[in-house]
Amino acid sequence: MFLGVAVLAALMLLLGVVGYVVGASSGEDLDSNRAVGRAEGRVAGLQKGREAGFEAGLRGARRRGFSSTYPGAFRDSYRRAFVDAGLELPRYQAIEVSR
User: Fold this and answer.
1) I need a labelling partner for 73 at 20 to 30 A (CA). Which of 14, 39, 54, 66 fits?
2) How far is CA 76 from the centre of its chain?
């Protein structure tokens, strides 16, 4: 019984030493791979951030641009249609613009 426990303990110790040696010998590769992965992750993260930020900025700019230019453009087109039809022009401010 004692011999079986001693053999098992020696085997566990041997496996621990082998695991440590294998793990310690691959540290250089691990550090370089970690550095490469970190750099690639940073580049990918910046790209995703730029795309998301650009899209959000574009949506906001379109919204602001549309709301500031649409009413005037609508009124101008409405009055132009009256001119083309030969009708009397409505007052500029009297033209209702839906939002």
Assistant:
1) 54
2) 40
